[in-house]
Design a protein that fits this description.
Length: 624
């Protein structure tokens, strides 16, 4: 081989390795698979032709009956999970054999429990797991499971510090969702309360070695910052929220963080925060090294509906108007799909500002218009009338819901909360939620799990449900304050008020902005036993995973794991496990063998007596 060809081959190999390390879909070393949140695996040993042969390779009991929805992380054949009364556990990923266990302090009430962050130094000698518990950020040695005492002060970083508020007044700031690791930074969002006086939703980056704060982005702008004039004066001192409690994504090649924010607080009444309220309900593109804003798009102006963007932005490449474009797609609780140029923030299809109803609550002023993407079409139902009532409800329930629909305000997605009641559809806990979407990054396809769960809001002067975090902080004497009594419209037999399907799986071609196929996902066992199928499971928070083998895997609350053909939605394989499933499965390879592991520990819909008998488990499947 000539020196030129050898040099050329070396350059190509280095370029390939660099690209693979940037967004490596052959491993599962980060929450959701990789930092781009694709929930995609390039492994294809398991494919359409053999998925029906999948068998249980190993199972690891959680050792308790706690509810888990943890997405495992796998590095060098070691899997990290949550089990044994909220302990982090290292397992042999090929056999499920336990390696070490880290048990948090006995007084731990809140823990990063949907996944964990992994970081390693360039020489791979320093390997860390990063998580938060009781509002402190901590680091574990990934090889031993021991706390790293040199991290922060005495091995921890107080997350209540540095928010511009007295830490003693902050009830909640830690999220249960892991952040994103970029170079030597851990970038974190937060899970502020949902009531008045909540903490601000600052996005912050900490050094993974020292725990020191590196940068902060104020989602409620301070004086002189962009967006300050979209709030009342000095709102950042007393208004909370606009936080990223759920998932973020990274374009490692460009060094861009994509962060979807939640509503400002209080969730359902905003007379004390008049204005459009940037950067609540926005997709933010930030420089991952500095926290500088590159661009943003606000999906809801002055949100009083709790329309958080809860699902990770999905990074993928599409062919649009004959050109290859690196895009970012954001799905929402309202059932919308928003698609932007990843670098510029320019929408790929038009977004219209449409007139919406006015509020009749004292002091409240909603935006006159809200943005509606013209394309792609929505994946969820966006209205609920008496014609949509569930036929499987009791006669009493149907009469009750018919009366509620006819007496409440019911004027579409942006009907303001009212004293006489307001219908929300697909609901503030409907649409797409955390973990609820996946993409094939190179083919321009998007897959969304969504639920239709109508809600009824009723405004009152008192806190009717003792909403956590809704304790009145000091306020002006003339300041009106209202609370929402809200509930999901569910019948006495546990069924949603709206007719099925209650959970759907929708496949999009984002090259064209069209829906490829849509199916009901899961079933309700009690109805299925009567021959009533294709209803979809109820109330899920499910995470799909797509593979290069042409498959989409997911688990559901009906205790079943399934594999679908990504091109048609055809069911190719399913198996029932001992417990219900939530969260995101993980796909990985050890010793040339491909596995997929599910966390079967949701423990939902069980009587106390039954729950005591059932232990959750991580269950890994592979070909014989």
């Amino acid at each position: 081989m000539s020196q030129f060809l050898l040099l050329r081959l070396t350059i190509l190999l280095l370029a390939s390795c660099t690209a693979a390390s940037a967004q490596n879909h052959n491993t599962w070393s980060d929450y959701g698979g990789a930092s781009d949140s694709a929930q995609y695996s390039a492994l294809k040993q398991i494919d359409r032709s053999n998925v029906g042969k999948l068998k249980v390779a190993w199972s690891y009991s959680t050792g308790d009956n706690n509810r888990y929805s943890f997405n495992p992380v796998i590095v060098d054949g070691v899997m990290y999970v949550l089990a044994k009364n909220n302990s982090y556990v290292a397992l042999d990923a090929a056999t499920g054999k336990e390696i070490w266990t880290y048990k948090p302090d006995a007084d731990t009430k809140i823990l990063t429990n949907r996944g964990i962050n992994y970081w390693e130094s360039k020489d791979r000698k320093d390997r860390r797991l990063l998580f938060a518990s009781n509002h402190f950020l901590r680091a574990l040695d990934a090889t031993t499971g021991k706390l790293i005492a040199t991290f922060g002060e005495g091995g921890k970083v107080d997350l209540k510090e540095g928010l511009g508020r007295d830490p003693k007044t902050i009830a909640l700031v830690q999220s249960t969702t892991p952040g994103r690791v970029f170079e030597d930074l851990l970038i974190l969002g937060s899970a502020t309360n949902q009531g008045y006086g909540s903490a601000p939703g600052d996005i912050r980056a900490f050094n993974v070695r020292t725990g020191k704060l590196v940068w902060t982005f104020h989602t409620i702008p301070h004086v002189g910052e962009y967006g300050y004039d979209t709030w009342p004066k000095d709102a950042w001192k007393k208004i909370g929220g606009a936080n990223v409690w759920s998932e973020m994504s990274l374009d490692e090649k460009r060094g861009i963080l994509y962060a979807p924010t939640a509503s400002a607080k209080y969730n359902f009444f905003g007379a004390d925060r008049l204005g459009t309220n940037l950067f609540s309900d926005s997709l933010l593109a930030l420089d991952a090294r500095t926290g500088k804003r590159l661009w943003h798009y606000q999906m809801v102006h002055h949100d009083i509906w709790d329309y958080d963007d809860a699902t990770a932005p999905k990074l993928l490449t599409v062919i649009h108007d004959g050109k290859k474009i690196d895009a970012v797609a954001q799905v929402s609780k309202q059932g919308f799909v928003w698609v932007f140029n990843r670098e510029t923030g320019v929408p790929l299809w038009p977004i219209e500002e449409r007139a919406v109803p006015a509020s009749d609550m004292p002091g409240e002023k909603v935006s006159r218009t809200q943005p509606f993407p013209v394309k792609p079409p929505p994946f969820a139902r966006q209205e609920f009338t008496v014609d949509d009532l569930n036929p499987y409800l009791t006669a009493e329930d149907r009469a009750k819901f018919r009366d509620q629909i006819q007496t409440a305000r019911n004027e579409g997605l942006f009907t303001p909360p009212a004293k006489r009641g307001t219908i929300q559809m697909p609901g503030n806990n409907g649409g797409a939620n955390w973990g609820g979407a996946a993409v094939d990054p190179s083919k321009g396809t998007l897959f969304v799990v969504s639920k239709d769960l109508p809600s009824l809001l009723k405004m009152a002067t008192e806190n009717p449900q003792n909403i956590p975090g809704a304790v009145d902080p000091p306020r002006d004497a003339n300041e009106d304050r209202y609370y929402s009594g809200f509930g999901f419209m569910v019948g006495s037999n546990g069924l949603a008020a709206i007719k099925p399907p209650w959970t759907s799986l929708t496949a999009y071609d984002l090259n064209e902005g069209t829906i490829k196929w849509k199916i009901a996902l899961g079933e309700v066992p009690e109805l299925a036993a009567k021959g009533i199928k294709n209803t979809g499971t109820q109330y899920p928070k499910l995470g799909p995973v797509v593979t290069a083998g042409g498959l989409l895997f997911t688990g559901t609350r009906d205790k079943k794991v399934r594999a679908f053909d990504v091109d048609s939605g055809k069911l190719l394989w399913e198996m029932e496990l001992e417990a219900a499933l939530e969260g995101i499965p993980a796909v990985y390879e050890v010793g040339g063998k491909q596995f997929i592991v599910f966390c079967a520990a949701a423990q939902v819909g069980l009587t106390p007596a039954t729950q005591e008998k059932i232990r959750g488990a991580y269950v890994a499947f592979a070909l014989p």
